[in-house]
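Here's my example:
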Amino acid sequence: VLAEYRQHPGRAQEAEWLHASVEALEKVHRWAAVLETSKAWLEEQVRNWQQEAEQRERTLTELRTWTAQLEAAKAWLEEQVRNWQQEAEQREALVADLRAKGAEREAATVRLEEQVRNWQREAEQREALVLEHRRALESLHTRIAVLEHERAKVGRTLDDLEEQAWTRIGRRLRLLSGRQAMETNTHE
């Protein structure tokens, strides 16, 4: 079509305008393709970050569930320690009473003292287990706090990336509009 315009006398100017218009449209199409590619990339990044945030939320939920279970186990163990301590105290009182009754009960007293020591050892072992669970619980609380902090950072990073992408797209569109206006003014 351009060749036909150029061959006609007096239409050379129209041919140049048509040629400039075609080039401008080609540039616009190329920019549109770049913008579509950028938009697709940005949307993929948003989906990836959202999936990461959802996975972290699931992990936090699992850790909270596990923490609740550990806290219930800790409470049960602490109750057991109290029960065993009460039992040990009761047995110690019984041992003292038997000692007061005399030598004929000495053999029974020795057996009871051994039983008390066993219960005390068992109470100490359970106390150690409770302490170990407390430490594990503290570690879980620390990990939950770290994960919640990371989740917040991921959310902020996602918001920043989206804002930066839209800012870049806006700049490119303004630049493209400015170029088109300049090219239109130049050809007129």
Observations:
- The chain has a mean pLDDT of 86.
- The two ends are 21 Å apart (CA to CA).
